[in-house]
Design goal:
Helices cover about 70% and strands about 0% of the residues. With about 450 residues, the protein is mainly α. The chain has a two-stranded antiparallel ribbon with strand order 1-2. A hairpin with a 6-residue loop joins strand 1 and strand 2. Helix 8 runs antiparallel to helix 9, helix 9 packs antiparallel against helix 10 and helix 10 crosses helix 12. The radius of gyration is 31 Å and the shape is globular.
Length: about 450
C-alpha cells in the first residue's frame, strides 16, 4: 500500500516532536533531582547574629554592680577614712565624678576608646561614635561571640571609666578645690583614660602585643594609682601632715564601703568575660579567693609588725587583693589567685604603711600604695601564673610582655597627669587657701557640715 508524501512528511514531524518533548522532559526531571543535591552540597549561609538574652541579663547585672562600686561603695570607703570636716566633700567627689564621666563618656569617651581610629588606631579610637552616633537597639557588640547590645557594652565600660578617676581622688583627699577636681577629671578622662583603654581593649598596640588585662589591672588600677601619686606630689602634703591627728573619723563607713566594693567587684571581674559562661565563673571564684587571702595576709603582716590587727588593715588588704586579681581573674586558676592574694596583701601593706613614710609623700588614702602597687603586682603575676586551661589566651602571656604594658602605662599616665595638673593650676588653681583647708572642705567648698 502506497502512503502519500504529505502524510509521510507529517508523520516524520510528529515523530521528531515527540522525541524532542521526551528529551525536554528527561532534562527537566534530571534538573529537579539535581537542584536539591546542589543545594545540599552548597555551604549553608551563616545565620544572622541574634541577641543572647542570658549574656545580656548578666551584663545588665554586672553593670549595676560596678556602678555600685563607686556610688556608694568607694564614696563610703573613702568618706570614712578622712576627718569629719571633709567627709561630705569626699563623698561629693565620687558622686560628682560619676555624673561628669557619664556625660563625657556618652559624648566622646566611648568613641575614643572603642571605635576604629583608622591610621591612628594603634593609639586612639575615632570620632565615628561621638554621642553614640550609629548605635541602635539592634546593634550588637561582638556579633557571633557575646551577642550583647552595644548600648549595654558601652554602659558597662562607662562604669569602669567612672571608678578609675574616682580612685585617684584618694591620693589628694582633703586638699583639692572642687572646681579644680572637675576640670582635672574631665581632661584626665579624655586624654589619659580613654587612650589607655583603647591601647589595651580597643584594638590598640598593647592589646595586639599580647598584654593580658582581663578586667583592668593596667587600664584602671595602675593608671589611677600612678596618677594619684603624681597628684599627691604636685599638690604637696595636707596642712598639718605629720603633726596633726589625721585618723579616720568613721571606720564603720569604710567597712560598709569596702564590703560594697567586694560584692561589686564580681561584676567588675566576672562581668569582663561579657558572657554568662564557665570563664565568668572562674573569674568570680578567683576574685573571692584572692581577696580573702590578701585581707588575711595584710592582717597577719600588720599583727606581726604593729602587734595588733586593725579594722583599717583588713579592709585595705581586701581591696589590695581585689586590685591585684583584676588583670588575672580570667587567666589564672584559683591556686594562682590564692598566690596573687598573699603576695599583694604583704607587698601593699609594706608600700602603704612603710614606703610612704620612708619617702615622705602624702598619699592620703593610699591610692598609689594599694591601687598602683597592687595593679603592678597583679599584672606581673598574671604573666607568670596564666593557665591556658582556664583561658587559651594565657598561653602567650609572659612577665616581659606584662612589663612592657606596665612601663608604657606608667610613662603616659605620669607625663599626661603632670601636664594636666599644671594646666588646671594655671586656669583655676589646685588647692584651697590654708584657712579653708584648716576649716575643712565641707564648709569651705560646699557650705555644709556633718552635725
Amino acid at each position: 500500500m502506497n502512503i502519500p508524501s504529505t502524510l509521510k512528511t507529517t508523520g516524520r514531524a510528529a515523530l521528531l516532536g515527540s522525541l524532542a518533548l521526551a528529551a525536554l522532559g528527561t532534562v527537566a526531571a534530571f534538573a529537579q533531582q539535581a537542584a536539591p543535591a546542589a543545594a545540599a552540597a552548597a555551604p549553608a549561609a551563616a545565620p544572622a547574629p541574634v541577641l543572647d538574652t542570658g549574656n545580656t541579663a548578666w551584663m545588665l547585672t554586672s553593670t549595676a554592680l560596678v556602678l555600685m562600686m563607686t556610688i556608694p561603695g568607694l564614696a563610703l570607703f573613702y568618706g570614712g577614712m578622712v576627718r569629719k570636716k571633709n567627709v561630705l566633700a569626699t563623698i561629693m567627689q565620687s558622686f560628682a565624678i560619676t555624673c561628669l564621666v557619664t556625660v563625657l563618656w556618652f559624648m566622646f569617651g566611648y568613641s575614643l576608646a572603642f571605635s576604629d581610629g583608622g591610621g591612628m588606631n594603634a593609639y586612639i579610637g575615632g570620632v565615628s561614635k561621638f554621642f553614640h552616633h550609629g548605635i541602635t537597639v539592634s546593634t550588637l557588640w561582638l556579633p557571633g561571640v557575646s551577642n550583647i547590645p552595644e548600648f549595654v557594652f558601652s554602659m558597662f565600660q562607662m562604669t569602669f571609666a567612672i571608678i578609675t578617676p574616682a580612685l585617684i581622688a584618694g591620693a589628694f583627699a582633703e586638699r583639692m578645690k572642687f572646681s579644680a577636681l572637675l576640670l582635672f577629671m574631665a581632661l584626665w578622662l579624655l586624654f589619659v583614660y580613654a587612650p589607655i583603654a583603647h591601647w589595651v581593649w580597643g584594638g590598640g598596640f598593647l592589646g595586639t602585643a599580647g598584654v593580658l588585662d582581663f578586667a583592668g589591672g593596667t587600664v584602671v588600677h595602675i593608671n589611677a594609682g600612678v596618677a594619684g601619686l603624681v597628684c599627691a606630689l604636685v599638690l604637696g602634703k595636707r596642712e598639718g601632715y605629720g603633726t596633726t591627728n589625721m585618723a579616720p573619723h568613721n571606720l564603720v563607713y569604710s567597712v560598709i564601703g569596702a564590703s560594697l566594693l567586694w560584692v561589686g567587684w564580681f561584676g567588675f571581674n566576672a562581668g569582663s568575660e561579657l558572657a554568662a559562661d564557665g570563664l565568668a565563673g572562674a573569674a568570680m571564684m578567683n576574685t573571692q579567693v584572692a581577696t580573702a587571702a590578701a585581707a588575711l595576709a595584710w592582717m597577719f603582716a600588720e599583727w606581726i609588725v604593729a602587734k595588733k590587727p586593725s579594722v583599717l588593715g583588713i579592709i585595705s588588704g581586701a581591696v589590695a587583693g581585689l586590685v591585684a586579681v583584676t588583670p588575672a581573674s580570667g587567666f589564672v586558676n584559683p591556686t594562682g589567685a590564692f598566690i596573687i592574694g598573699i603576695v599583694a596583701g604583704v607587698v601593699c601593706y609594706i608600700s602603704a604603711v612603710k614606703v610612704k613614710h620612708i619617702f615622705g609623700y602624702d598619699d592620703s588614702l593610699d591610692a598609689f600604695g594599694v591601687h598602683g602597687v597592687g595593679g603592678v603586682v597583679g599584672a606581673l603575676l598574671t604573666g607568670a601564673l596564666a593557665d591556658p586551661a582556664i583561658n587559651a589566651l594565657g598561653k602567650g602571656g609572659s612577665v616581659a610582655i606584662q612589663l612592657y604594658g606596665i612601663v608604657f602605662t606608667i610613662l603616659w599616665t605620669a607625663i599626661a597627669t603632670f601636664v594636666i595638673l599644671y594646666i588646671v593650676k594655671a586656669l583655676v588653681g589646685l588647692r584651697p587657701t590654708t584657712q579653708e583647708e584648716v576649716e575643712g572642705l565641707d564648709i569651705s567648698q560646699h557650705g555644709e557640715v556633718v552635725p
